[in-house]
Structure formats: C-alpha cells, structure tokens
Specification:
Two copies of one chain form a homodimer.
Chain A lengths: L9 H10 L4 H11 L7 E4 L1 H16 L11 E5 L26 H8 L3 E6 L19 E2 L2 E5 L5 H8 L5 E6 L5 H7 L2 E4 L19 E6 L2 H12 L11 H5 L2 E4 L6 H8 L7 E2 L3 H26 L6 H11 L3 H24 L2 E5 L12 E2 L2 E2 H5 L5 H4 L4 E9 L2 E8 L5 H15 L1
Parallel strand pairs in A: 2-3, 2-6, 9-10, 9-11
Antiparallel strand pairs in A: 1-3, 4-5, 6-8, 7-8, 7-14, 11-15, 12-13, 14-15
Helix pairs in contact in A: 2-3, 7-15, 10-11, 10-12
Chain lengths: 431, 431
C-alpha cells in the first residue's frame, strides 16, 4: 500500500514544490519507483515524456511561473483517454498498437494546469464494466487484497492512487466507473455534472452518460483538481440559514445490499431522514440508454472481429444489441420524470447520501455473486447519477471485513462545493 | 371539383372582405355549402363555433381592426390538431369521443390571424400513413377520381382545399403528409423548416420528424399563410448576383419512379443539372427514426387495445416495435452525414427540385403496387426533407393520365422565399 504519495496531499506537495523541498523531477522519480507491477495499475509508463514535462515544470516553477496546485504534480490517465504520442489501448485487443495523435481535451486541461503525465492506467475493456478484471492487459488488482477486484472501469487510475504511485488520476464514469474503484480501493472519486469536463478525445461508451472524473486520496484533493482543471471558481453555497451551512442530508436506502456495508455508511448519517428513490428503476433506464449507445459504437467491430473482444465484453455487447429502439426513447422520457422527482428532493435537501457500492470488492474473475450478475450489481447505486447528470462523490467510509467501503454524496448541478464541504466534515468526523 | 373557393386566392378574398363585397359570415356559408360529404374531407363541422368566429371577424373588420390576410378566411384543421371544444379523433377508434380542452399552438396562431375555423378534416389513422384511406372515418376520396387515394396523412385538409371547400387548411407532415396529398390532389402544400411552427397540441407521430404545414390552392397562398401564422417577415434572398435571383436549381433524379411522372416534372427544369442524392438511404434513416418514436408513443395502446387500431396501422406498429435501439442512434449519425452532403449541395444551388411522388394516386384500398408496399413507397421522395428538417414545397406540375402530379422544391433553412419565388416562376411558366 505504501507508495510515496500515500498520505501526501496536493497541498503538501505544492508546499514542498514551492519551498524547494521537492521538485517535479523528484516527484516523478518517486512515482516511477512506487509503481508495483503486480498490481497492474499502469499499462504504459511514459518515462521520456514525463521527464521532459517534469523538467519543464521545474523550470517554470524556478522562474516564478505558477500554474496552480497541479503544477509539477505527477498524474495518471486512464487508457481510454488520448494522450498524444502514447498508445490508447482501451483494454482491448481491438486497439493493439493504436497510438493517439492528439491530446484529449481533458489532457490539455491537465497540461495547462502544469501536471506531469506519468502514463496510462488499465481500464476495464472499453470502460464497459465495473469489475476491472476484464481487459487484454489482465486484471487490475486491489491493493487491499490482491485476489480481489479493483473495481472499474477506471481500475488502474484508482489503484495507482490507492497504492501511492500518484496523488491524482483521471478516470471516466458512465455508470460509476470513477466511484466504483474509488470505493473498492478506499480513495475518493468525483464525477462532475454532465458535460462540465469535456469528453473530446475520450473513447465513448455511452455519450448520454459519459463523464470525465478525478480520483485522489481525499475529497479535498478531488476538489482542488476539479477546480484546477475546469477553472471554475469555488462556488459559495448560499449562506441563507444554518441548515444550509451544516448541510441538510437525506439518506437514500438501497433496496438490496450487504447489510454490513449499509450499516457502516448509515452510521455516518444517523440524523438524515430516509427518502424513497427507486434506484432499480433508474438502473433499468441506465441500462436501456447504455445498451443502445454502446452497441451503436461497437456494431462494426462486433460484426467484423468479435473474437478480439474479451468473452464477457462480447456477451454483454450482443445482449445490448437486442434492446429495442422504443425502449431507448422511453428511457429518456422516464429519466425526465425521475429528474423532476430528484429535483424535488434537492429542493428540500442539500445532499443525498448513500453507500457507493452494495458490497465490498468481490474476488477477481467472479461473474456472479449474492446480488446476481456482478455487471449490473456493481452499478446499482452509482448509475442513477449518470442518468441524471448530477455531481457525485465517493469518499472512504470505513471498512467491512478489512475491505474499504465508500460513502456517496450527490447534489444538484452547480452544488459541487456542498459535496466537498460535506466530505470534509465527514473526514473530520471519521478521522 | 368546383367548390366556392376553387380559383379564388387569399388575395381575392381579402380584397372582397375589405371592400365589403364579401363577409366572413358569407365566406363561411360558402364553405359549408361547398362541403361534399361523399369526398369525406371533414370529420367535424363546427357550425356554431365557426359562425361566432365569422361574426366576430366581421365586427372587427367593420370597426377597422385588421388582422392580416387570413382575417375572416375559413380554414380547415387536420383532426390530429387540437381545437378547443371540438373532438380530436386522430382517425382512430382509440380517440372516440375525445374532446380537446385547449387549442394547439398552431390553432392559436390561426385564431390570432383572424381565421375562421370551419371544422376538422380526416386524417390517416394517427397520421401514420401516406394513403389517406386507413381511418375509422373511412377513406378520404380524391376529387380527381373518387376511387383513388387522396394521399395522406393530411387527407381531408388536401381534399377540402382541392375541392374548393376552403381556401386554406392546416396539416402535419412527418414523412410527407402535407406534400403527398397536395401532389395527389393537385394543390400546393408547404412544410416549413423543423420547429418553425410549434407542434404543441398536435398528436405526435415521430417528434424528431413532425412538422406542421399548410395546404392551399397555390404556393403564393401557402406563403401568405406561412407568414401570417409565424409572423416571420418575408425573407429577402441575398441579391448577390443574377443567378441567385433567377434561382440556381439542381435536379434530384428519383431512382425508381413512374417514368411519365418523372418526365412531366423534369420537363419543367430542362436546364437544371442532375445531382446525386441517395434518397433510399434517407428513407431508411427516416424509417428507423419514425419506427422507434412512433412505437414509443403507441406502446401502451398496442398492448392494451390492439383491436381498436385499423389492421394496417397495427401491422405497421408491430413491425416498428422491433427496430433496434442502436439502429435508431445510428440513424441520427447517418442523418448528420447527409446533412453535410445536402448543405454542400445548397451551397452550390438555391433549390433542389424533384417530383413530390413516384406515382399518381393509387386506387383506394390497395396496399401494394409496382413499387412494392405503398406505405414506404409513398414517402420515397418526401421523407428526406423531414429527416433533414429542410423547408419543402409541393406545387401542381401538370397531370399524367388525368391525375395531378406535383413538383417539389427544397431549400436551406431560412431560404423559404426562394421556394415561393421559384414556384411563382413555375406557375407563370405552366399557367
């Protein structure tokens, strides 16, 4: 677990970089030394490019050019996001040898913020799954138990942060793919509102649901990275009354979940009133949208070279191909109804809280468990917020059986600081 | 054929109304007298409401209130468009006894323009077909040959105008439903660019393709009605050079069509260069979009009371239900590609010209002909412009075997006056 960046915050690193106690080149060296190949977090390490970027960052820092809190900080990027000159492998044999020509928009934002891109991290094949063990690159392993799933699809990004190889990583999240591995690996993962971080240059899974997000050791570091990337000023929550400042939290009770996981997270919000929300209906809506959009993107590959997919990916795509068109359209109509219901909730509360996952990380290679097939079960509590395009944050919330558990906060679009503030209070509470 | 309004233009009527040679009440009486029940154009005549509206219009006109060229003019409205207090029957047993509570937005525009709504006109069931002979109200008959289809789905609106019962009617057009019956019945029919006339209060067929349009004796009356309804100022085409003023026309050759029909329309544009455009691909795109959207709207009715549909409508809906979701999404991607191709054409030309229909009106009740099933064949040359959302106008272009043939003009969004100007030149040419 103990890579160099374990326990070091972006604030710590920034202080050291500015005081001269650390250099970007030095931090990069620590990152590279911290890589544990057995965990399989990285699929590409860009020694040369990263060293040049670190050298450049050090020169800028020395000459007084300040690019903000990510300046000189080593960052990892999920392998469905294009970084110019590096392979983008998508975790798939289909993209063997494929090299990106230009940076994805989110990578441009990262570079503008002065970050040093260390390399590309393993992804569940085509980001189409939450387990992280289905990839031409093999399973990414959970640092808390190497025989267990990292979660996915931003598997390597979560593990690179959780094992202290980097302090920050970019991921993508279509049904939970930032928050799921964050929860399983005991770190923080943040999915902004739909559309805030541009998805250009990111291989699509389901364009109506795709988000770019960040993974870091703490919610506070997610907040710093989010603001550094987007240039969004810190939103100040309306100081209307005490309840707003303390955060009015509603608890969303999962219908089926590991009771120990639920109890652990629920204990953090003893006073939050429970509000009903049909997360299973929202998952059905998610599924109809993702099925149709994902298959549309893969149709030619499935027809022409089905054998290049991992078997589970192919099976899921073939199933997805059969979803009817009117069900897709109906899903958006139903989404609008849920959007109205949740907007009503978010008029009365600042935050919704629930576990990120129904369970702790299952064993690598398992396709079914107590909640049925893992593929749908893994997104049960996360995908609703992709359907609704709302900002959602997963933060560490203790352990069950020695494995990390995540608490998930959701709020209205534009209310991101409420999430980070609440997570800060929670961190103070839980230590 | 010879109802009162045959050969009378909106300009004629306006002149007579303003000079006192005619009154709105008198025109309404002429409209009601001109109704030929055998043609089955109207499903509802609103004697009382229309008389009150005519009386009000006459009072306004007498007191110097002028609402423009539709003031005091009798107009018919397709029976999928809500008129407050009147039944909206959709041509279907499903809506037996259903009375609209409020006016559709386009009806509000009509009333604001001072028009007198005479009644509701027969529609192909749920506007889901181009033949006009599938309806709980029975077939609407073509005034040129009563054993032949009127065309649809705005069947009654076209026949009411073609037989001189009214000078103007509202229709809707999802794949050609204004232009098809206009062409078959020898009148003008105009479909504006997508979204220009609001569709609120109109029963949807396929929301991505649905347009409200107008039917009248001439293109000029369509123009007058369009501007009166929308309040759009007459767009002045850029006077850049002579070619723009005379209209640069490209000919789009239909791949399969009655050669006599093609020859008749082509003869009007002897100098127009032929440009390729895959109208059959565009029809496939149309079909994928309409199938999914139409079935989504009807799914519960099909499940709960299939027997209330006309057999052909039910058969088409059941077929539509099976279109796959990814095909729906792909259709929009393909649409974007065609939009680029046609935008390129409309950079080089002001207008595209082609026949409105592949054939003249088939016999009532026939479901198949020389071009296969009538349902797809009827929209072959019209539906492309719904897919692309471009303004399209059908105008009379002679006869083949004694039956009317229509010429269709298409232009870029905002170029509507180019259409009307070209139709004016054509009318001068053909008499």
């Amino acid at each position: 677990m103990g890579g160099f960046f374990t326990g070091r915050t972006l604030a710590d690193l920034g202080r050291d970089l500015r005081s001269g106690d650390a250099s970007a080149a030095g931090l990069l060296a620590h990152a590279l030394e911290s890589v544990d190949p057995e965990l399989n977090a990285f699929v590409t390490l860009d020694h040369e490019g990263a060293e040049a970027a670190a050298e450049h960052a050090d020169k800028e820092l020395a000459s007084g050019v300040g690019r903000g809190p990510l300046h000189g900080v080593p960052v990892a990027v999920k392998d469905i996001i294009d970084v110019a000159g590096l392979p983008t492998g998508m975790g798939s044999a289909h993209f063997d040898g494929h090299v990106a020509e230009t940076d994805a928009a989110c990578v441009t934002l990262l570079r503008n913020a002065g970050a040093v891109i260390v390399g590309k991290t393993g992804t569940h094949e085509f980001a189409y799954g939450g387990s992280g063990d289905v990839s031409v690159n093999g399973p990414v392993r959970n640092p808390h138990d190497r025989e267990r799933m990292s979660g996915g699809s931003s598997s390597g990004s979560a593990v690179a942060v959780a094992a202290g190889m980097v302090p920050l990583a970019l991921g993508t999240d279509t049904g939970g793919s930032v928050r799921i591995p964050a929860a399983f690996c005991g770190i923080a993962g943040f999915k902004p509102p739909y559309g805030v971080i541009p998805t250009g240059g990111v291989f699509p899974l389901s364009p109506s649901l795709d988000h770019v997000g960040v993974l870091a050791g703490s919610a506070d570091d997610c907040r710093i990275a989010y603001h550094a990337l987007t240039g969004l000023a810190e939103a100040v929550p309306p100081p209307a009354d005490e309840s707003v400042r303390t955060g009015r939290v509603a608890w969303i009770e999962p219908e089926a979940a590991d009771p120990e996981v639920v109890r652990t997270v629920r204990a953090l919000f003893p006073d939050a009133p429970a509000e009903p929300l049909d997360l299973f209906e929202l998952r059905r809506i998610f599924r109809a949208i993702q099925d149709c959009e994902a298959y549309e993107i893969h149709a030619e590959r499935v027809a022409e070279a089905p054998e290049r997919y991992q078997p589970l990916t192919l099976e899921r795509l073939e199933q997805a191909s059969r979803t009817l068109g009117w069900r897709y359209i109906r899903a958006f109509r139903e989404r609008d109804e849920f959007a109205g219901q949740v907007a009503g909730l978010l008029d009365r509360y600042d935050l919704l809280a629930l576990p990120t996952m129904m369970m702790t990380a299952p064993p690598i290679g398992e396709t079914e468990g107590p909640f049925g097939r893992w593929a749908p079960a893994l997104v049960s509590l996360t995908c609703a917020w992709n359907v609704l395009g709302l900002p959602a944050l997963s933060v560490p919330a203790g352990t069950v059986g020695g494995l990390p558990v995540g608490a998930q906060f959701v709020t209205r679009r534009g209310g991101e600081s409420l999430l980070f503030d609440a997570a800060g209070r929670l961190a103070a509470l839980t230590g």
